[in-house]
Design brief:
Number of helices: 5
Structural class: mainly alpha
Distance between the termini: 18 Å
Strand content: under 5%
Length: about 150
């Protein structure tokens, strides 16, 4: 069976994004039970945190674009850029994990999820590296021209 790196990478990015969304949801869950949540920055209106909102938008949009790009772009330069993106995300996840471990109140279920996300990120790094090093597919290979009907 041929290795389909773009599909593997897309699935890993999707799992990563779902885990990141759940990380956010876990952080907000106490609100639904009448409890407060940990605040990193006190704000009185949305404009005061617009920079953070734009950064979070970028954090989610880049993997979404990578998923699309991996399906449609096959060249080596894109693969290299994509691999670099996965490394950046792993570094950011590691920093986030360490910073959360330095908080006065450690929330262990969040740490557990973040460790899982970090490990998924490392797997994504590995598969993206393998894809980057693999030869480009020949669009005219007999395998692609054979019908399975």
């Amino acid at each position: 069976m041929p290795t389909n790196y773009p599909t593997k990478i897309a699935i890993l990015w999707i799992v990563f994004l779902l885990g990141t969304l759940f990380h956010t949801q876990l952080g907000l869950m106490p609100l639904f039970h009448g409890l407060s949540v940990i605040e990193s920055q006190k704000a009185t209106n949305i404009n005061e945190i617009s920079g953070i909102m734009w950064l979070m938008l970028g954090f989610f949009v880049l993997p979404m674009l990578a998923i699309i790009g991996n399906i449609f772009i096959e060249n080596k330069r894109y693969r290299l850029v994509h691999f670099g993106l996965t490394i950046i995300y792993s570094v950011l996840n590691f920093i986030h994990l360490v910073l959360d471990l330095l908080l006065p109140q450690i929330i262990w279920y969040q740490i557990t999820l973040m460790v899982l996300l970090f490990l998924i990120g490392l797997l994504l790094n590995l598969v993206a590296f393998q894809w980057m090093k693999s030869p480009p597919k020949n669009n005219h290979s007999p395998e692609r021209l054979t019908s399975t009907y």
